[in-house]
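Question: what's this shape?

___
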Amino acid sequence: MRLRNVGSSGLKVSDFGLGTMTWGLETDADDAGAQLTAFRDAGGTLVDTAVSYGYGRAELILGELIAHVVPRDELVIATKAGFLRTANGVIVDASRRELLRRLDQSLTRMGIDHVDLWYVHTVDDSVPFEETLGALDAAVASGKARYAGVSNYCGWRTARAATWQRAVAGRAPIVANQVRYSLLDRGVEREVIPACAALGIGVLPYSPLSGGALTGKYRDGIPADSRAASTGYNVGDLDDERNLGIVAAVATAADGLATSPTAVALSWVRDRPGVTAPILGARTLGQLTAALATEALDLPEEISAALDDVSAPDIAYPEANR
């Protein structure tokens, strides 16, 4: 894979990341090991996890794999805190105490002394934003995190956080924003992408295949072996004519290029302005292998433009008044 800087920072990562959201739930430790090995062998470096993934099991599995399968120094490890799934529901807590406590927990689970990139997983308006950002400063200053980022932040929140961090020397710069982004979900282009571009922040898209919808496998219903069938995972509104048209356009482009819809959809988002590395959330080694084949594909300009046209989000005042 090619290496890219995360925004304007000196952190370099592979142009795709390996997601671990299914690890410990739909993907067992052996399959996770096969995925990590294949990803590393393809030149991948960025592994993305979170304290909430698999109710903590994803980080535990990654720790075992770092110890016995792929050495720590071959990977760029990113994790997140501030969002937790429990048996009683979701807990959002981006207080300094909770964030730093969860970072220590993540390091213990993975058996490492630092992460390369640490995100605030989501917005928590019950906590002063300067307290949340202060936890990022503490993590970087202590050496437990090398770089700091945010996730699921809208444009104005991204700009506010980045500007605050730049205001005083010694604060940890915001270098990344991980957001949902795909041909079926381009809302971040209205404000988030421009804000990140202006402030030197890398965009790391998750769900770049829109839960598998862009692979085309849901065009004729829900396959029995799919994530949507086994977990009820939301793959988007495929009863919507516009969305169906986008999925069909991806399939048509794939046919014309003698490749897969997966490769077309991933290539498109990988090469969007401001994007550092889409996160591949494969459940199986086969899915990951199909996604990794994208690296050989550079979409012709006319096909990329056609996909842009068919999937363009509605942008009007004030975004269109830039």
User: Anything to note?
Assistant: The mean pLDDT is 94.
